[in-house]
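> call design_seq(struct)
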């Protein structure tokens, strides 16, 4: 009876391995270079990435193969402000799904700032032109290359 139960369990596992997805964590301090596949428009937007190169552990073993898909989100997005203040985009990398079906949990964030034009604004402020100068937006768009470092 016990042998029959074990055989049934093995049969179920071999037929539908996707029902039992494997979860693992990526070690802290791991650099993960990605290509951005979607634009970061506003806070809360979902982001998609593609891992650019094989990511290896300290032993040289591949833990994330190049081409793996990854998911994340926009944490914060602010546009460049008046008087030359820079914009800011903060994005997160949350999960990676490898080509062999492993789901890797990741904790990584990346912030990008736009151009800071406050010095130019101060120089032009006697002419009241500084009011019309806006800082750079700090956007992240599809095709950008970014390296996340896990926390």
């Amino acid at each position: 009876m016990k042998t029959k139960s074990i055989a049934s369990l093995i049969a179920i596992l071999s037929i539908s391995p996707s029902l039992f997805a494997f979860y693992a964590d990526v070690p802290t301090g791991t650099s993960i270079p990605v290509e951005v596949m979607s634009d970061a428009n506003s806070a809360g937007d979902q982001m998609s990435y593609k891992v650019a190169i094989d990511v290896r552990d300290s032993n040289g073993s591949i833990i994330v193969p190049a081409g793996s898909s990854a998911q994340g989100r926009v944490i914060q997005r602010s546009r460049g402000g008046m008087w030359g203040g820079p914009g800011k985009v903060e994005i997160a990398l949350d999960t990676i799904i490898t080509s062999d079906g492993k789901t890797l949990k990741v904790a990584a964030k990346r912030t990008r700032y736009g151009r800071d034009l406050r010095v130019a604004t101060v120089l032009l402020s006697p002419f009241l032109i500084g009011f019309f100068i806006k800082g750079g937006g700090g956007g992240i768009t599809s095709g950008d290359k970014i390296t996340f470092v896990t926390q």
